[in-house]
Amino acid sequence: MNNKQNILVFGGLGQLGQCISKVCIQRGWSAILFLDEVEGNILDPEILEKLFQQESPEFVINCAAYTAVDKAEDEVGLSEKINKDGAANLARCCEQFNATLIHISTDFVFEGNVPKLLNEEDLAEPINVYGKTKLAGEQEIVSILKEHYIIRTSWLYSEFANNFVKTMLKLGFERDELSVITDQVGTPTYGVDLASAILDIVESGNKTYGTYHYSNEGVTSWYDFAKAIFDLSGTEVKLHPIPGSAYPTKAARPAFSVMDKTKIKQTFDLEIPYWRDSLITCINALKKQ
Ligand SMILES: NC(=O)C1=CN([C@@H]2O[C@H](COP(=O)(O)OP(=O)(O)OC[C@H]3O[C@@H](n4cnc5c(N)ncnc54)[C@H](OP(=O)(O)O)[C@@H]3O)[C@@H](O)[C@H]2O)C=CC1
Ligand SMILES: Cc1cn([C@H]2C[C@H](O)[C@@H](COP(=O)(O)OP(=O)(O)O[C@H]3O[C@@H](C)C(=O)[C@@H](O)[C@H]3O)O2)c(=O)[nH]c1=O
């Protein structure tokens, strides 16, 4: 990596931002600035313009997002502002200041009603507000800026911030029994693996811009994922498989959102770990905390 390449990370203190920071430390990358939601508020064009002027970034990584899937159903305006308008603001600055944007999106842009591997050309038809606003953000970027990589990922977890793995470990510690749904199927993604892939793309110099899918390898349900979390962490809890209808949530979620990763693997020559192997890595990292 050429350490002169300036990189700005928006949402730098969120889950994925912290994963990127971890991998940067491992790789000895230092020309990278992690911005919180105040100093790098993607809703404030003035702040953004100043930052871009001062830093002249070569790459911008957008990890900033509104990610509260159920709450988004009640906070449509805020979700749209952050996920759509914020993404557009960054794309405009990248266009003006000649930067490349790496933007993170989600499997929740898909309806997920067919058990078929989803590729980048498949029709995106989100079924909840979060997914709709993330798709709108993608569309803004595509219309404003050629030099972009949009990376859709799914079921992100890590040792940082809040995520399903940490929620399960907390609930497993507090309760004797837990019920988790079996009829939503997808692939977990260890944030540190995704962070490595993002930095590999930066490092590659490969300018094949466009939309890509990235998750870990394999397929699972939330129930099987929870089972693996408890087995691998040695947490004793009675786990009940239930249908989604027995766990009503404000937002609907895709029943099947397993993504095809052929394009990202072939374009950038990436090897992707199997989800269970990465879960072991994450649980070991959590044990060391
Ligand atoms: N988490 C998941 O399971 C998945 C996430 N994704 C996508 O991956 C990306 C990273 O997600 P993840 O790291 O888990 O999300 P987090 O919610 O952990 O991080 C998002 C960060 O964005 C910040 N933020 C919110 N509003 C603004 C703003 N106006 N300006 C700047 N920063 C802001 C948040 O700050 P604060 O907390 O203070 O509000 C938070 O630090 C997102 O694009 C998300 O949509 C995709 C698939 C799965
Ligand atoms: C806590 C809990 C959840 N569940 C179910 C609810 C839900 O369908 C599923 C996952 O729960 P969560 O609410 O933690 O996950 P959720 O917020 O839906 O996760 C999504 O987040 C956004 C940001 C994305 O982009 C998606 O890829 C995906 O990771 O597990 C249970 O069945 N039992 C439980 O005890």
UniProtKB/TrEMBL annotation:
GO molecular function: dTDP-4-dehydrorhamnose reductase activity
Coiled coil: none
This protein's pathway: Carbohydrate biosynthesis; dTDP-L-rhamnose biosynthesis
EC annotation from Swiss-Prot or TrEMBL: 1.1.1.133
Domain RmlD-like substrate binding: 6-286
Keyword terms: NADP, Oxidoreductase
The UniProt record lists the keyword Amino-acid biosynthesis: no
Origin: domain of life: Bacteria
Chemical reaction(s) catalysed: dTDP-beta-L-rhamnose + NADP(+) = dTDP-4-dehydro-beta-L-rhamnose + NADPH + H(+)
One Gene Ontology term from the biological process aspect of the record: dTDP-rhamnose biosynthetic process
Uppermost EC category: oxidoreductase
InterPro entries in the record: dTDP_dehydrorham_reduct, NAD(P)-bd_dom_sf, RmlD-like-bd
Keyword NADP applies: yes
Pfam families for this protein: RmlD_sub_bind
Cellular component annotations (GO), alphabetically ordered: cytosol
Function (record text): Catalyzes the reduction of dTDP-6-deoxy-L-lyxo-4-hexulose to yield dTDP-L-rhamnose.
Record PANTHER family: DTDP-4-DEHYDRORHAMNOSE REDUCTASE, METHIONINE ADENOSYLTRANSFERASE 2 SUBUNIT BETA
Family as reported in the entry's similarity comment: Belongs to the dTDP-4-dehydrorhamnose reductase family.
Designated name of the protein: dTDP-4-dehydrorhamnose reductase
